[in-house]
Each structure stands twice: as structure tokens, then as C-alpha cells.
Structure to design on (224 residues):
């Protein structure tokens, strides 16, 4: 079974804290993505990576950074968390560059107080 | 900016009823995917359509890609409580890594 695992299902952090969200996939996929999901807004792309150490900004990268040191692992970093970053964060991976199925993790619900 | 609008946003129906969810854009997409997301889970792919006018069936679910590849619909026949979830469409443009997700339709089927 293909699997995308996100390290934390629920996190509560304080404003200004540094937050790490980890994502691991076991499918040897080239592409990995971080999305943010908010009600009524669908999924919005934060960052994606098409290879180790390669990354591209998505639609809403401000306030976020990413790291991909190994093919299977893609980390999302909030350098200084703010309340407007309270959201559901979804990691995904895909094999093909175009038209490929996205495999999602279960999500990490982050609350910033 | 490419946008995908889904309608309706919310739908609550009785078991056995039929329903249609729409996904519309002013942009042309190379392909369009439909995902279903259940509470506490990530979205799971239901279907990918790539040809204008294409119709795909998955048991009681029928997916159609518009002739101009700007819109799509999902029709569910005889809905069951197990169909409850958030339905998301996602458009993809050839040559990019980006999938543009729709705003979502939250469906609740009552027994």
C-alpha cells in the first residue's frame, strides 16, 4: 500500500514559535507538495519539490519555507508562527510530473494561539 | 490566476436521491481530477479525465469533462451514506507541476 505519513495530526503552538511539519512517503515519488486547506478556499499550494534539494514556490509561500534533504522526506517550516497560519496542512506526493495522481497524507491540523 | 469554482458548496440529501456537483473555470485544463475527502483523512483520487467531452463511470458516480475542457461535473445516482464527504475537483495544465483545486462541495447523505 502506498503511504504518505505526516508526523503530527494535531499541533498547538504559540505566536512566534518555530514549527516543523514532517512528511514521509514510501513510494519513491519524485514530486512532493505542501498544501494548506481552509474552508471555502479549497487547497492552496504552499511549496512543491520535484527532486532532492529542489523546491519551487506555490501560490502562498509567504511565511513558510521547506526542506528536502532526502527523496522520501519533505518538511514544511514556519519560522515564526502567526495566528493566520492556523489551518489544516496536507502533504502530497506524485510519481509523474504531469497528470499524475496525488497521494495525500492524513493532514496536520495546526492551531496558533 | 486560475480559479475553479464548485457548486453547490453544501448539499444535504436523503439516501436514494440523485445529485450533481459542478466544477467551472474560465481556464482550459489539460486534465481534471476529482477527489473525495472523508473527515480526518486526506483527499483520495476518484477519477482523472483528459479528453474534452469524456465521460467516465465509477459504479454510481459519473464524471464528465466539458467539451472545451473548462468545466466538469460529477453525478451521483442513488446516493448512499457512504458517499458523504468533501468532493474536490483539481485542474492541471500541461507543462506545470501545479494542480488548481476547486473550493469543494461538502455532501451529506442522510439514511
Amino acid at each position: 500500500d502506498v503511504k504518505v505519513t505526516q508526523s503530527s495530526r494535531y499541533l498547538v503552538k504559540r505566536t512566534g514559535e518555530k514549527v516543523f511539519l514532517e512528511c514521509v512517503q514510501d513510494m519513491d515519488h519524485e514530486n512532493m507538495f505542501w498544501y494548506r486547506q481552509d474552508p471555502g478556499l479549497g487547497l492552496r499550494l504552499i511549496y512543491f519539490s520535484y527532486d532532492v534539494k529542489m523546491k519551487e514556490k506555490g501560490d502562498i509561500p509567504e511565511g513558510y519555507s521547506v526542506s528536502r534533504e532526502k527523496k522520501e522526506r519533505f518538511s514544511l517550516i514556519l519560522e515564526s508562527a502567526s495566528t493566520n497560519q492556523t489551518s489544516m496542512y496536507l502533504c502530497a506526493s506524485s510519481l509523474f510530473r504531469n497528470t499524475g495522481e496525488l497521494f495525500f497524507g492524513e493532514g496536520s491540523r495546526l492551531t496558533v494561539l | 490566476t486560475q480559479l475553479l469554482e464548485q457548486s453547490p458548496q453544501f448539499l444535504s440529501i436523503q439516501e436514494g436521491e440523485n445529485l450533481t456537483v459542478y466544477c467551472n473555470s474560465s481556464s482550459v485544463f489539460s486534465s481534471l481530477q476529482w477527489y473525495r475527502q472523508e473527515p480526518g483523512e486526506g483527499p483520495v483520487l476518484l477519477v482523472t479525465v483528459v479528453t474534452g467531452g469524456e465521460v467516465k463511470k465509477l459504479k454510481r458516480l459519473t464524471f464528465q469533462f466539458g467539451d472545451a475542457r473548462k468545466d466538469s461535473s460529477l453525478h451521483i445516482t442513488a446516493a448512499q451514506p457512504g458517499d458523504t464527504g468533501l468532493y474536490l475537483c483539481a485542474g492541471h495544465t500541461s507543462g506545470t507541476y501545479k494542480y488548481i483545486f476547486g473550493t469543494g462541495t461538502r455532501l451529506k447523505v442522510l439514511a
In short: Chain A has a mean pLDDT of 92. Chain A has one domain: 4-97+107-112. The interface with chain B takes residues 4, 31, 35, 40-45, 48, 50, 56, 58-59, 90, 92, 97-99, 101-102, 104-107 of chain A (CB under 8 Å). The radius of gyration of chain A is 13 Å.
